[in-house]
Fold each of these.
Amino acid sequence: MKFSPRVKGLLAAFVTILIWTSFIVIARASVSHHLLPLDIAFLRILGAGSVLLPWAWWMMRPQRQAGKKVGSLWGLSPLPIRITIIGGLFGSFIFSMLSYSAFFYAPAAHASVLMPGSLPLWTTLMAWLLLSQSISKVRAAGLVCIVLGDLLVGGSSLLQAFEGGEVWKGDLLFMCAACCWSFYTVLVRREGLDAVHATMAVTIFSCVTFLPLYAIFAWLQVLPSQLDAAPWQELLFQALYQGIGSVVISGISFNMMVRHYGPVRSTMLTAVVPALSALSAVVLLNEPMYWNLIAGLALVTCGILFGLRKSS
């Protein structure tokens, strides 16, 4: 059964929004258990690599048998080494460490506004710098709304920093994580990367760099880790959800969105993620919903919808 490009784009958007929303709630809930941020990042990459490594090896097997040079990193990555390294750093390695560390300081409602909510801002700026895409007046008005919404959420935590609060650290990490993901998004579009190939490449880069280094440092107790103390059920769940769900499935669906809608409109299609994830955190995690969070969500959502207008 073949789907039209439009239907494929809509399905990819639905899957991406569903996983992104649950990702924020589950990542925040995970910090109250046994694992540390880098432990979760380790399991995320391990889970994704357990699927993508053998898949990439099998996919490129015919070319290797024909004597052709394929990809990079000993033939494991289907993309050239330069794109594999850049995409792996920003789309997997750095993004994972920043985002999971942020959840240990700031609540899920802050992540809702400052990660998916600020993606259109960063992606538009990246597309302007790297793709020479113009910014219309309508889209500029939407970006102003997004910035105001981010300031309403993050500004309050910055003020609390003078009283000894640490939420601002999480807010800053969320914004940096969103910036990294936006750069990766524009890279996918600029290079015209295939969705599966891009997801394989960034994951394989982290598998051959981050996984062995972190395992050695954790074993030598150079870095703190709770991998040996956490129950196996939690380790398995994080590897399955964070790895296969958030990386393999969501990574492929998001890259399909980028190829169909473009980087800016793709991130703006996630307009419902901030509101859905923030409300889910209130219901499922008993997080408070203050006036500045409500106002910030409203401004960010309006800003994203501005950018989705055809006239933009």
Amino acid sequence: MQLHPTSLPAGRLGDDALRFVDWLAEAGQSWWQMLPLGPPDRARSPYKSASAFAAWRGLLSDPAAPVSDDEIDAFRMRESFWIGDWERVAGGRRAVADQVRFAREWDALRRYARERGVGLIGDVPIYVAPGSADHRAWPALFRSGEVAGAPPDALSERGQLWGNPLYDWPALQRRDYHWWTERLRRTFALFDVTRIDHFRGFVAYWAVPEDASDARGGHWRRGPGRAVFDAAARSLGPLPVIAEDLGVITAPVTRLRRSLGFPGMVVMQFGFDPDDPRGPHRLENHEHDSVVYTGTHDTDTLRGWWSALPAATRRAAEAQFAAADVVEPEPWWSTIRLAYSSPARLAMIQAQDVLGLGGEARMNVPGRATGSWRWRMAPGALTPELAKRLRAATEESGRS
């Protein structure tokens, strides 16, 4: 199940996180997927963090817990690649002490989850934030004159202007992609598996002039391909990665993903267009080498999505529910069960969809500067009855 810690009732680690693990185990679920854990930006987005390595102090359940000098020294030694950069940006000893506190709380959560058969899945944004600790500490690893974005498409005639600094991939190559290896090392120290956002950018990425007002004037530049992952694997061993390959995906992107052995993503909400019978998100086109999601942090909840569906798309979805014998009184539960029937190796659902919440519980609206990343679950919302219902659906599909 996907749920960011900020969406727990208290919005942080501690007892709420442990109780959520208990509920997952009771519901027969094996994975808890989160969004990035770094300090979010002013809009609360975890995808534009002040650090690609540091965890956010706001996630701590006990931000005043005592920390000894020995613990700080040991952390500095263990995380020497990045902690000095973060310390200079975030405030000296206190910044390190917060990372020690986070390590304590996180290690306790991870042990607790493992004991109950629940693995943790993280999320790595491909880019760092402008002005972040990483951007300041490693300026030679980033291009100047252009920033990240996405080209115009059916959803946005002006494209998307993200504004993140772009990597100077030849400069990274000369350093054997060491920065990326250390970033993944840190990620796998925290998570059992990680999703890498915007995977297609490793094949080709959209570069926009830094003074542009929108992304229409951008152009494609070639990415590093598999070299960055080969370098990381030489140091870290096999890489447990889910490749976020959503959007307009070319054959070279699919070849790269498959050559690396990374599962891709399919999303149920994208799979019912009657005019797109060959789309990869349609259930009959799903492959085992993928992870099926009911929705993502960028889409509406299932209930909100369903309420806005055109009649033809709704009829197409209902026909699939009936064909798979997963008709439920609530269409969001039908969609959950349909996802579970997929041949994809893993099915991931969002907590909002199990709860049957509408668009008010949506995590993010892409392109909107305010109002996102704020949803928080009500205390006690995930009941024993919901756990029993989800376990039954999981067992019926053979995914338990």
